[in-house]
């Protein structure tokens, strides 16, 4: 049994020469105990076939090039997709329809914070994530277990005044955080420092009438209903990105390319008919369809980004360390060719 399991693990690893994959994926793929899988991986590490490193309680495997050059079998037919609670992904119903036609079953997992969705992808808890691009770039050098499809929507945010002067409230390491930094750098607001919220519920429970909030649709809709006043929005701030699709290396190149094509087609479908998937998306997220209708005019398809366009984002949180080219490695090159 032990030798059979070892061969099964090696067979899987042969598919990922030169790539990083979450160790949790190997556990799931072979359907064996974590301890036994870890023991075998430890043996392979001693033999020089792989290396492993720990990030918190998670482990990432690097498979050395040359173990095999073959394309991995498509083992995953059920794809777990992480998204953030937001009105942004109105193209999701079209995306799900297209990947179903390709033989995949999708499970949607909704996160209350963008960075948690990206971390779940990096550690193998989900297979794909549509989450804020700044967070995807921020975590990439640490994990390197995924690649990013550089296209998506922009807009869908507002900066609101709660009443009196005070701090600027923002989510952390997100598009909102990038906007926060841009606002303060350009002196668009006289805010008294920054305070971070960890979920939509946290900012909606805020009792203070002091300060400003930068947040996304539908959160700002509810804040406006409660009396907050818009002071800046996407028409006054040139922000060319929000969330992008990131795909786990564990999917393999063939599956990643199929999912990238489906994602880009879904974006084009949204551009042609933004309101088409509202009812379906409402049922997935619990956001009222009447609220989602207003999002169709708040979000727009962006021109495809290129690797150089990520430099501005990286400069906002990592101006020197690590060296900037590491972030360009995160770009899914095959998906990039589809955009050109």
UniProtKB/TrEMBL annotation:
Pfam families: DUF7343
InterPro entries: DUF7343, WH-like_DNA-bd_sf, WH_DNA-bd_sf
Stretches assigned to the DUF7343 domain: 6-62
Domain of life: Archaea
The protein, known as: Transcriptional regulator
């Amino acid at each position: 049994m032990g030798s059979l399991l070892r061969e099964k693990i090696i067979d899987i690893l042969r598919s990922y020469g030169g790539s990083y994959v979450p160790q949790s994926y190997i556990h799931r793929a072979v359907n064996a105990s974590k301890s036994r899988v870890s023991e075998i991986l430890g043996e392979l590490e001693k033999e020089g076939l792989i290396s492993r490193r720990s990030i918190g309680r998670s482990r990432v495997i690097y498979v050395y090039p040359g173990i095999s050059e073959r394309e991995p079998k498509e083992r995953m037919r059920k794809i777990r997709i992480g998204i953030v609670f937001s009105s942004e992904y109105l193209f999701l119903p079209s995306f799900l329809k297209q990947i179903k036609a390709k033989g995949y079953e999708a499970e949607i997992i909704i996160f209350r914070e963008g960075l948690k969705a990206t971390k779940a992808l990096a550690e193998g808890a989900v297979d794909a994530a549509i989450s804020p691009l700044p967070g995807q770039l921020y975590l990439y050098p640490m994990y390197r277990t995924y690649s990013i499809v550089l296209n998506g929507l922009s807009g869908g945010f507002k900066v609101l005044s709660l009443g009196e002067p005070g701090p600027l409230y923002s989510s952390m390491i997100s598009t909102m955080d990038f906007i926060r930094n841009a606002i303060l750098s350009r002196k668009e607001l006289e805010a008294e420092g920054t305070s971070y919220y960890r979920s939509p519920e946290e900012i909606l429970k805020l009792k203070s009438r002091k300060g400003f909030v930068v947040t996304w649709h539908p959160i700002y809709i509810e804040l406006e209903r409660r009396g907050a006043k818009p002071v800046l929005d996407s028409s006054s701030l040139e922000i060319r990105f929000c969330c992008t699709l990131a795909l786990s290396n564990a999917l393999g190149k063939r599956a990643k390319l199929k999912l990238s094509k489906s994602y880009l087609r879904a974006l084009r479908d949204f551009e042609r008919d933004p309101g088409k998937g509202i009812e379906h998306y409402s049922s997935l997220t619990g956001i009222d369809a009447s609220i989602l209708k207003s999002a169709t005019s708040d979000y727009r398809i962006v021109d495809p980004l290129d690797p150089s366009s990520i430099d501005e984002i990286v400069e906002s949180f990592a101006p020197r360390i690590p060296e900037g080219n590491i972030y360009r490695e995160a770009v899914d090159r095959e998906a990039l060719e589809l955009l050109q």
